Amino acid sequence: MTTAATSTREPQRAGALADRLGTILTDRGIDPTAPLTEPPAEPVTALELADARIPARYRRALADHPKVTAWVEEIARTGRKGPGEAPGISEGPSLLIAGPTGTGKTHQAYGAVRSLLAANVRLRWEATTTADLYASLRPRQGHDPERALWSLGRCPLLILDDLGAAKTSEWTEELTYRLINRRYNEMLPTLVTTNMPIAELRGTVGDRVASRLAEMTTRVILGGADRRRHPAC
Ligand SMILES: Nc1ncnc2c1ncn2[C@@H]1O[C@H](COP(=O)(O)OP(=O)(O)O)[C@@H](O)[C@H]1O
Ligand SMILES: [Mg+2]
């Protein structure tokens, strides 16, 4: 029986194991008594750090739409110099990336962030879908929704994904308005994506938001087939 066999086996002594390990290491030319040293730290680029925060699907995304690459170039060119002379971002234009489901809107948005980081632009950025935003701002104990909204409103670069896709109410309209209005006032670059045809956006997000978006964003209209269903497109 297995249990009996296990229990009758002579217990292994940790000391004996350590001796064997020591012999193996010595045979391989490694001194087992040498203190452990950390491997030399490899420089971690901002892009590598950002990749850890980017959802796996978009971790290799490249912004290849001409209007998106033009935006990246403008932001990188006009950024305020920060420590070490690396350009940072301050005020700048925003993009409204619109198109049907699966046409690559989220891909372009994360691709744009990756391109900025690859161009050594110092960048603090946040990304959220509107559905997640509303969920995170619902009042609950021990959480200050005002603070969360304030920090998204102030973040130098924000991806606001899928505007108009979540169920709307007066409450969501007010939150969207406050967020967009703050970013509009401060002229902070924002990458907004939406499934809605532009003409219908106003009816969904309200006139105050639609009007600000019209002024603050360049429109990027994506078309073609749903890439999820036709990956070769
Ligand atoms: N330019 C592109 N090159 C390669 N793959 C892409 C490109 N655009 C989108 N995809 C892929 O197509 C799928 C749908 O893209 P996504 O950005 O999620 O669409 P949307 O946000 O418009 O619904 C994803 O798997 C994405 O990785
Ligand atoms: Mg998307």
Automatic annotation (TrEMBL):
Gene Ontology BP, a term: DNA replication
SUPFAM superfamilies reported for this sequence: P-loop containing nucleoside triphosphate hydrolases
Pfam families according to UniProt: IstB_IS21
Gene Ontology MF terms in the entry: ATP binding
Domain of life: Bacteria
Gene3D superfamilies: P-loop containing nucleotide triphosphate hydrolases (3.40.50.300)
All copies of domain IstB-like ATP-binding, residue ranges: 95-209
Name of the protein described by the UniProt record: DNA replication protein DnaC
